[in-house]
Amino acid sequence: MPTLEPVPAFEDNYIWTVHDGRSALLVDPGEAKAILTWLATRRMQPAAVLLTHRHADHVGGVAEIRRRHPGIAVYGPADARLPDVTVAVGEGDVVVALGMRFHVLAVPGHTLEHIAYVGHGWLFCGDTMFSCGCGKVFEGSSDLLHASLQRLAALPTDTLVCCAHEYTLDNIRFALTVEPDNAALLDWREHALALRRAGRPTLPTRLADELACNPFLRCAEPALQRRLAGPRGGGGFVDAAATFAVLRSLKDAFG
Ligand SMILES: [Zn+2]
């Protein structure tokens, strides 16, 4: 059974790896040095690269990895702004690498070309979903991001969500402003605090836990809708997509 392991990069990124002890898949290697050092100390070779979207902190290391390992397959969105992609993939495609199969989902919203990879109980979702949060809307609309998150929310609940940033504690602080009495969220805060105090990642997170804690996946909850209807709708009822839009703008203002 392959092993899942996050490699920290920059301030708060994770480069996710899946390896068999000899070769590793690298997801969003934004920084070459961090991942090449990690590979060298474990005497492993990169088997393939999977990219979710074009932001530099996700793709910045790919050119150097290709220089060191010519011929390596780089899977990613079909987008001219991703010149290092050697195998363009999109909705419905299957990536076969290291003897594993990953299904590709189009999840536009953070950026338009954003894709996610699902397989073996793991979801590599880039900047679409974080624990208790989601990506900012840089392109498209909040409706588009909401729809993408709804697709991810419908995956099997035991899916392990491999988010690309360690934003969990900040996101929990925000989530508690909109769901202060959410018992699952309060429990997750304690657990996440303990993990960070021990120097450990809070990720991956289980989809079932995100469904209980992540307000961006909970926009159909009547209590959350009622709470967020105030600033936008004068206290009236809003639907899940409108609730999501209010939530996203509140988070943007929160920081
Ligand atoms: Zn991004």
Tell me what you see in this structure.
With 255 residues, the protein is α/β, with parallel strands linked by helices. The chain folds into two domains: 3-162, 4-Layer Sandwich (Metallo-beta-lactamase, Chain A); 169-254, no CATH class. The protein has nine helices and 14 strands. It has a six-stranded mixed beta sheet, with helices on one face. It starts with a strand and ends with a helix. The relative contact order is 0.12. It binds zinc ion (ZN).
Principal-axes shape call: globular
What is the number of helical segments per DSSP (H or I, 4+ residues)? Answer: 9
User: How many discrete structural domains?
Assistant: 2
Radius of gyration: 18 Å
Cross-sheet strand order for the largest sheet: 1-2-3-4-5-6
Name the beta content range.
15-25%
Task: Profile the largest sheet.
Answer: 6 strands, mixed
Question: Which labels suit this protein?
Answer:
alpha/beta; binds zinc ion; 255 residues; globular; 2 domains; 9 helices
Topology (elements, then pairings):
Layout: E1 3-9, E2 13-19, E3 23-27, H1 32-41, E4 45-50, H2 56-59, H3 62-68, E5 73-76, E6 87-88, E7 94-97, E8 100-106, E9 115-119, E10 122-124, E11 129-130, E12 133-134, H4 142-153, E13 160-162, H5 168-178, H6 183-197, E14 205-206, H7 207-213, H8 222-233, H9 240-254
Parallel strand pairs: 3-4, 4-5, 5-6, 10-13
Antiparallel strand pairs: 1-2, 2-3, 7-8, 8-9, 9-10, 11-12, 13-14
Helix pairs in contact: 4-9, 5-6, 8-9
The structure holds zinc ion.
